[in-house]
């Protein structure tokens, strides 16, 4: 008897889950309500799609094992993504000072537009598996509190039932999973939202001639000043372009949507380097603004009851403030958990879905802790405030970051956690603790740690002083 898996949502999480399932079933049907573009173009159902995205090393490593017979890293690089060393290829101003750049190679991250990444992953999965995508709107789950047996679809010809041996909800932040579960008799799902009111504003520029290898540049927001946060980033992406994303929290930190205000905002950041770079660059797009940025989590792993053969992944499970660049890596790590569990036990084995749902809580916890522990410090954050534990953790992590501005050992620990190759416990290893207590052996950089050639590029682009 043939076996069918159904995945709700053809975004990154959905396609990676489909790839994992394709190795153990005869048919994987991905259900997507939106029209999908034929190329690397933005689509309606992805509100954050036009803003900066980073694929961290931990997420890329998980992707490498998911699609049979290919290297996702090589595929993405061939499609136009850029590979950047977090240790040497980035200029980063943190609340504790500028990070130094080290000759030792640290974790690599990929940068590209979200449109390119989603399209490239979708092409890879469809080319190397028997996964197929069908345009449809899911109305509800079939089954009961003990087992999900498929989905009910809404089609132009009326409702349709699609049975399945396994169902994954990867329908994104607008998922109706809590309502669906309630209709099966599973209620009391705990949810939490922490919202700093972050607004993103992004514009794409042509990479200036001679600046193709200029480092990724980021000025981070400082959540510890009791005022709205402001940040800016220049991200190299495919097609010889710079994606410039600004982000600010409610209460006065929000970036504007007009060109003059956009540039002025970059120059008013704690360091004007982003503004100096783009002041001499050619804009290619209008400024796109988005407000879908809250941290929201459904604690499905804590539900007293959970149906067999049903799993929730990606933004349907948890969303994070995009300023911290974790969402795509978390989705890949979650799909990796599903893949490993499927390799260990049969698709229909009792308890599989529950083990997966509890297993994916680990990467979600790591990303949630990193994002929320900073967002709660912004003055008008809704849904959370610093606790005694937050204050103790923040005091230590700030000291780690301060040490990392002049200590390779501390910096490597921060890179591993940021890249999601290790969990937050990496900061508590004896070597990291010792380095933190000893303090940085080198002073933090007085300014952006650029090479002579990079300074020349910046001077050549800077129109602000002319």
Question: Any idea what the CATH architecture of the domain at 4-83 and 114-193 and 294-367 is?
Answer: 3-Layer(bba) Sandwich
What is the CATH topology assignment of the domain at 4-83 and 114-193 and 294-367? FAD/NAD(P)-binding domain
The N- to C-terminal Cα distance equals: 74 Å
Radius of gyration: 22 Å
Roughly how much helix do the residues carry, as a percent range?
25-40%
Helix vs. strand class: alpha+beta
| Largest sheet, strands/sense/barrel | 8 strands, mixed
Count the DSSP helices: 14
Overall residue-averaged pLDDT value: 93
Low-confidence stretches: none
Outline: globular
In CATH terms, the superfamily of the domain at 4-83 and 114-193 and 294-367 is: FAD/NAD(P)-binding domain
Give the CATH level 1 class of the domain at 4-83 and 114-193 and 294-367: Alpha Beta
- What is the beta-strand fraction? 15-25%
Number of strand elements:
22
Domain FAD-binding: 5-344
GO molecular function: FAD binding
Organism: Streptomyces phaeofaciens
Protein name: FAD-binding domain-containing protein
Helix and strand topology:
Blueprint lengths: L3 E5 L3 H10 L5 E6 L21 E2 L1 H8 L7 H8 L2 E4 L4 E5 L2 E2 L9 E4 L2 H15 L2 E5 L1 E7 L4 E8 L2 E6 L2 E4 L7 H8 L6 E4 L4 E8 L9 E4 L10 E8 L3 E8 L10 H9 L5 H6 L3 E2 L4 E3 L4 E4 L11 E3 L5 E2 L7 H18 L7 H8 L1 H15 L12 H17 L3 H11 L11 H9 L13 H10 L5
Parallel strand pairs: 1-2, 1-12, 2-8, 5-15, 12-21
Antiparallel strand pairs: 3-7, 4-7, 5-6, 9-10, 10-11, 13-20, 14-17, 14-18, 14-19, 15-16, 16-17, 20-22
């Amino acid at each position: 008897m043939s076996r069918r898996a159904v995945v709700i949502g053809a975004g990154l999480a959905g396609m990676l889950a489909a790839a994992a399932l394709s190795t153990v079933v005869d048919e994987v049907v991905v259900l997507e309500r939106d029209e999908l573009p034929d190329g690397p173009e933005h689509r309606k159902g992805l509100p954050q799609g036009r803003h900066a995205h980073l694929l961290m090393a931990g997420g890329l490593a998980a992707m490498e094992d998911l699609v049979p017979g290919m290297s996702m890293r090589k595929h993405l690089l061939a499609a136009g993504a850029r590979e950047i060393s977090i240790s040497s290829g980035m200029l980063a101003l943190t609340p504790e000072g500028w990070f130094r750049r080290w000759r030792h190679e640290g974790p690599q991250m990929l940068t590209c537009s979200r449109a390119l990444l989603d399209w490239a992953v979708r092409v890879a999965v469809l080319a190397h598996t028997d996964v197929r995508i069908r345009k449809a709107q899911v109305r509800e789950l079939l089954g009961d509190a003990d087992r999900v047996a498929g989905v009910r679809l809404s089609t132009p010809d009326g409702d349709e039932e699609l049975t399945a041996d396994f169902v994954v909800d990867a329908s994104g932040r607008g998922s109706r999973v809590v309502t669906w579960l309630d209709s099966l008799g599973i209620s009391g799902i705990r949810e939490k939202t922490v919202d700093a009111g972050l607004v993103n504003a992004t514009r794409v520029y042509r990479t200036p001639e001679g600046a193709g290898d200029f480092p990724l540049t980021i000025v981070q927001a400082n959540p510890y000043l009791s005022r709205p946060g402001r940040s800016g980033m220049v991200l190299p992406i495919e097609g010889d372009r710079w994606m410039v994303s600004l982000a600010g929290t409610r209460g006065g930190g929000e970036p504007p949507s007009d060109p003059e205000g956009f540039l002025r905002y970059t120059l008013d950041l704690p360091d004007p380097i982003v503004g100096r770079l783009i002041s001499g660059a050619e804009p290619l797009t209008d400024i796109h603004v988005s407000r879908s940025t809250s941290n929201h989590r459904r604690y499905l792993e804590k539900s007293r009851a959970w149906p067999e053969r049903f799993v929730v992944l990606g933004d349907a499970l948890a969303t994070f403030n995009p300023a911290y660049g974790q969402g795509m890596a978390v989705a890949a790590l979650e799909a990796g958990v599903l893949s490993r569990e499927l390799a260990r036990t049969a698709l229909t084995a009792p308890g599989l879905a529950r083990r997966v749902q509890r297993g994916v809580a680990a990467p979600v916890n790591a990303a949630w802790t990193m994002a929320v522990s900073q967002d709660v410090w912004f003055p008008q954050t809704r849904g959370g405030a610093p606790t005694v534990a937050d204050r103790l953790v923040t005091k230590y992590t700030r000291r780690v970051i301060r040490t990392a501005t002049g200590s390779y050992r501390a910096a490597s620990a921060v890179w591993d956690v940021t890249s999601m190759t290790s969990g937050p416990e990496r900061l508590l290893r004896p070597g990291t603790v010792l380095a933190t207590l000893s303090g940085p052996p080198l002073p933090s950089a007085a300014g952006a740690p650029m090479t002579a050639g990079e300074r020349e590029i910046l001077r050549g682009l800077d129109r602000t002083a002319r």
